[in-house]
Write a structure and sequence with these properties.
215 residues, 7-stranded mixed β-sheet, two-stranded antiparallel ribbon
Amino acid sequence: FIQALKAWGVGSGLREAVNYSFVGTDDLDRLNLPVEGRIKIANPLSEDQNVLRTEIAPGLLNNVRHNLSQGNASLRLFEVAKAFVEDAASDTGARENSRLGMLVHGARHSQEWPWEQGEADYLDVKGLVENLLAHLRLGAGGYVLEPEHPYLAPCVRVEVATKAGPKLVGRIGRVEPKIADAYHARKEIWLADLDVDLLRALSRATTPAFKSLPK
């Protein structure tokens, strides 16, 4: 499922990011993420890698900063990776959750595209999410505005209809301008964060249906 997800990401025109599971406490603080649940590294290589990531966003935002410093301002990235939260009931002391992060920033199309350029926005990242849900046979999804989020404003909940009711599979939103500025971004950063474990379970629970060709 993970390999199929990555193949979909590349086929959708996204570039895969691969980041360390270790981030800095400052990375999590910058995104206003809670201190509870963080897992500290016993012997970190540096203060920039002294804790396990609790969300996938810090790595992708650091990718933005690195690319901008190298003169690459048009970004369409995805990453499939685990997030870690402290859990005393687990044998390892950590609860792992696979996540899919998608990020768009800068021009909507490459410079070679001769027509309308424009900047990537909510519709671009929402279109990617809708395309993925359709690819997984989960419908178009439902989108509900969420009043508050630690680092996304506005933030939209992504829900999938099931027999038991709508299931929250992730969120879409714009990184708050002050936070984006900390990563040297002068244009809007749009981010999607989806629960891969839940998407896998929902996708595998679907039964394909077939129709005869129209006469």
